[in-house]
Amino acid sequence: MLLLVPLVLGIVQVGLVLHVRNTLTAAASDGARAGAPVDARPVDAETRTRELIRGVLADQYADRVSARNVVRAGVWTVEVDVRADVPALGLFGPAVPLAVDGHAVKEVVP
Questions:
Q1: Is the residue at 14 inside a domain?
Q2: Of residues 13 and 64, which shows the higher confidence score?
Q3: Is the pLDDT of residue 90 over 80?
Q4: Distance of CA 22 to the CA centre of its chain
Q5: DSSP states of 33-56 as a string?
Q6: Is residue 110 part of a domain?
Q7: What range defines the domain where residue 48 resides?
Q8: Is 98 exposed, middle or buried (0-12, 13-18, 19+ CB in 10 A)?
């Protein structure tokens, strides 16, 4: 039992961190797509990202969301960045910083 319990708890913790990271990544990507239409603004991308995060995770994970329009390789894109701290030991304890982002090509009027 002394070996099995810590092993199982470690696997559960890795699963928790991966769940949070995957959820933040999906929310950032979907938020970037929400900010991609011609009439959309970066604040629309931020709002959509926060809504998605708050729908699945705790509100604390939606605090540090930023979006902006940037040019990458000559193409206008929407970039959404999400920063969050995930507890490294269960639901409490020291935090592991996560930084994820999502991109979408910005629609432009020809």
A1: yes
A2: 64
A3: no
A4: 7
A5: HHT-STT--HHHHHHHHHHHHHHH
A6: no
A7: 4-105
A8: middle
